[in-house]
Amino acid sequence: MRKLSVVVPARSGSKRLAGKNVRPLAGEPLMFHTLRACLGHDDVEHVIFTSDSQEYLDLVDSAFGDAVKCVLRPTETAGDTAKVTDEIRRLLNASPELFPGGWFGVCLPTAPLRTQIVMSRALAQWQTEGRALFSARPYDFPVQFAFRVSQSGDWEPVFGDSSPMVTGQTRSQDIETLYRPNGAIYIQRIDAFLRTGTFYSGAIPFLMSIEESLDVDTDLDFNMAELVLGRMQ
Known about the structure:
Elements: E1 4-9, E2 24-25, E3 28-29, H1 30-38, E4 44-51, H2 54-64, E5 69-72, H3 84-94, E6 103-106, H4 116-129, E7 133-138, E8 147-149, E9 155-157, H5 164-167, E10 179-189, H6 190-196, E11 204-207, H7 219-232
Parallel strand pairs: 1-4, 1-6, 4-5, 7-11
Antiparallel strand pairs: 2-3, 6-10, 7-10, 8-9
Helix pairs in contact: 1-4
């Protein structure tokens, strides 16, 4: 059986919704839902929580104890311009003992409906395919309708003459389903990531539903997640 360690990175400096990672959702901090989703899998060697906030680290340590390894994230990989990939690269280079299996995973804490069951499906796909993967979801409205607004105020179809707004083929059944990454799960080889700096190198999509993919970034998102979690209980 392949094994991997999963990183859950949680910055404290959210600009759009301050403190969202510790905001209560269904009775516990938002980030706890992701940590619980990552625990309890035979093929997960370590769950690693990384944050620039000692308060966040203390919360996780108090709730999960030795089940989650807490790592302080330095300011150089936690600023407003820093990327998640910066912190992952730092962790892989600074603490290789935390990643003994040659693979790693990343689960962002803003996807609370990526449950343990969903995580099990992703790990099963990884075990079966033996390839890196990233989670994705269908667009909830056909992206083929996308258009730009010119300086003159006119609309310009992004997809040119194939746009349904040009062809008139606007029936949803006639429009190809397109997908996008949802940020919920990434699984990648350590050597491939260190070489390319991307989660997507050689990866295949792991498809999730629109509901499972809910990304919590606004008050409305919190309300929607509360409703769905309440229905699931």
